[in-house]
Design a protein that fits this description.
This protein is an all-alpha fold and about 80 residues long. It has four helices and no strands. α1 packs antiparallel against α2, α1 runs parallel beside α4 and α2 packs antiparallel against α4.
């Protein structure tokens, strides 16, 4: 499992079990990881490509988060 999956999983688990502090830490790591992935392509494809990749990853995470919140909202 790569780091991004680890942190997204931790966001889901900590959110499900109501640990808001741990969920915030994990979510911050998800965002940081997405930034690092976006920045990793900058030397090869430029800043615009890195920003687009970050935006794509952020959008995917946003969809996961919305789904997670909807599902866990009904599980409480």
């Amino acid at each position: 499992m790569d780091r991004s999956h680890f942190w997204v999983r931790n966001v889901a688990l900590t959110t499900k079990y109501g640990d808001e502090e741990a969920a915030k830490v994990a979510e911050d790591q998800v965002v940081q990881n997405a930034k690092e992935i976006g920045n990793s392509v900058v030397p090869y494809y430029g800043k615009e490509a890195g920003d687009k990749l970050f935006g794509l990853l952020a959008g995917h995470y946003g969809a996961v988060k919305n789904y997670m919140n909807a599902v866990f909202g009904f599980c409480s």
